[in-house]
Write a structure and sequence with these properties.
355 residues, 2 domains, alpha/beta, six-stranded mixed beta sheet
């Protein structure tokens, strides 16, 4: 297990509680956590596995697979050397960190992709990335739903979620633009940024359906809040961005055929022109064709505190994200070496799940 943040802690608990898996080591970033029992760190009591901040010691344990769940603003760049070390050592990796790796052929920079491919070949190991979105709700679920289709005219997959409990100011302001004037230019407003983040999901869908994407278009819309909003990352003042919508759009045969959309809000009454009022993440798929197909999905917990997350509204989604990779472990271990997508694996059905 690599890290004990929100997703990592859920994964530690899931593996420790699963009789078909053995937790042999846990890597932690903080020196204060090193040496402590991993079970105590994640809130389930002692399990006899001491956490370590010594990556070499973890690799020396020769695990079959590492669940990689590190987080942070530079998480992709920080994860790359770790992925390479693990793969070269012959250790399979399942990751929630680099969600753009859900479709490795579209992963950029290309030099990183080549480095990972070479490492996987050298070690005879595999890497698989997933989560609830990207990784399932707007891509893999879409493909499963299309197994009912005779013909398809358009696919529209969306996530509607509250972001008032997300505490990282750098992500919320600089990357997404919350709390900034509507004429400011956050990362998502730069040409190519939306396609960079969500293009892999479009390409996974297109690949699965045997389609060729002509181009990926982007749309970025914002609305201002009419009052000050005091949220986890700080205060969004009246007149600044309080809700936003991103759309990554695959143009196929000259028309906009597949859309992956995200609606993010700091207050539930903002941006209602883009979707229903929600108090927890909602994932929707609409497939126009024969037949028309509509699917709405939520992931929630009866006891949000059971996830160990302070983000109660999204606690169920965090568990779903962790379990997308934990449940995939035995299938990834058995797979041919390389960079995997959901199309390379059977359904990653859980084991020992009925309790």
């Amino acid at each position: 297990m690599w890290s004990t943040g929100g997703i990592g802690s859920i994964a530690v608990r899931a593996v420790a509680e699963n009789p078909g898996m053995e937790l042999v080591g846990v890597w932690v970033h903080s020196p204060e956590k090193a040496g402590r029992d991993a079970g105590e760190i994640v809130g389930i009591g002692p399990i006899g596995v001491a956490a370590t901040n010594d990556a070499d010691a973890l690799i020396a344990l020769r695990p079959d697979c590492v669940v990689y769940a590190a987080s942070g603003p530079e998480r992709d760049a920080g994860a790359m050397p770790d992925y390479v070390r693990l793969l070269e050592a012959g250790i399979n990796v399942v990751s929630t960190t680099t969600n753009r790796l859900i479709y490795p052929d579209a992963f950029e920079p290309e030099a990183w992709r080549d480095e990972l491919t070479a490492a996987a070949a050298a070690g005879g190991a595999s890497l698989y990335a997933s989560g609830i979105e990207p990784g399932f709700a707007a891509d893999h679920l879409v493909l499963m739903l299309t197994t009912q289709s005779k013909s398809i005219t358009k696919i529209h997959a969306s996530e509607i979620a509250m972001y008032d409990d997300y505490p990282v100011a750098e992500t919320m302001r600089d990357a997404m633009g919350f709390g900034l004037p509507l004429d400011a230019t956050p990362y998502l407003a730069f040409p190519g940024a939306i396609a960079f983040q969500w293009g892999p999901g479009l390409r996974l869908i297109a690949h699965g359906l045997g389609l060729k994407i002509d181009e990926i278009r982007e749309r970025f819309d914002r609305v201002a809040t009419d009052r000050d909003l005091h949220v986890a990352f700080g205060t969004a003042q009246a007149g600044t961005c309080g809700a936003l919508r991103t759309q990554a759009i695959a143009v196929i045969d000259g028309r906009e055929a597949i859309i992956i959309e995200h609606v993010n809000r700091l207050a539930p009454d903002l941006g209602l022109e883009w979707g229903d009022r929600v108090d927890r993440p909602v994932y929707q798929v609409r497939i126009e064709g024969e037949p028309d197909i509509a699917c709405t999905m939520t992931a929630s917990l009866r006891d949000p505190g059971a996830s160990g997350s302070t983000m109660e509204a999204g606690a169920g989604a965090m568990v779903s994200t962790a379990m997308r990779v934990v449940n995939a472990i035995p299938y990834v271990v058995q797979a041919e070496p390389g960079l995997l997508t959901a199309l390379d694996l059977p359904l990653t059905l859980p084991r020992h799940v009925l309790r």
